[in-house]
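Need tokens for this chain, all 238 residues.
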Amino acid sequence: MSADLSDLERAIGHSFRDIKLLERAVTHRSWVFENLDVSDEAAARESENEVLEFLGDSVVALAVAENLLALHPTLDEGDLTLMKHHLVSTATLANAGEAIEIGKFLRVGRGEEKTGGRKKHALLANTVEAVIGAVFLDSGYIAARGAVKRLIGKEIKAATPERSLDYKSLLQEKLQAIKLKAPAYELRRTDGPPHDRRFFVEAVWEGGSSTGEGQSIKAAEMNAACAAIEILEAGKDK
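Here are the structure tokens for all 238 residues:
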């Protein structure tokens, strides 16, 4: 292990009953392929953190949504969604990972090590999610929610629709930085009765596309832009 996991336990405020869950949460698949017998594919999958990341993604989203609703009971779904997307984004979770130096606890393969894997934002964010997933399996939702609040509690309290990222502007900036044109937003369909309409929008740019939905076209476009940013960041950090 790259560092003492007890230090990571203190950082997230949770002492594991089963420390092997935390060990798995910080084990990248590159380490598994270099150090374990991967002829048994099922065993290999049980040793790396991608499934825990999948679980943690949902747990983080639920904890954030619960806290936002408690803090802002009068806001509509569009504003809450905008804030949630900001709080569960790669950027926010990677910053949380950097704050607790989660990179030094990672087990990564030699190739990933050489390319700076311990500092890649996508990998850091994914590891944070995996750790939250591990806390959930170890001690349940209340413990996992506590770890989420410890990691991004200040950001949750500070979040407002106005302070949340303008994802459309940010996406345009990211595309311009790699010499691509601004995306086009296309309304694909609407669902529901007039008093509860939902809009589905696709953001399209050279080489990619993403989708978003919301109670207004603006909210749907913003969510599509947020999804596009996640796609671009994931591609950049691979």
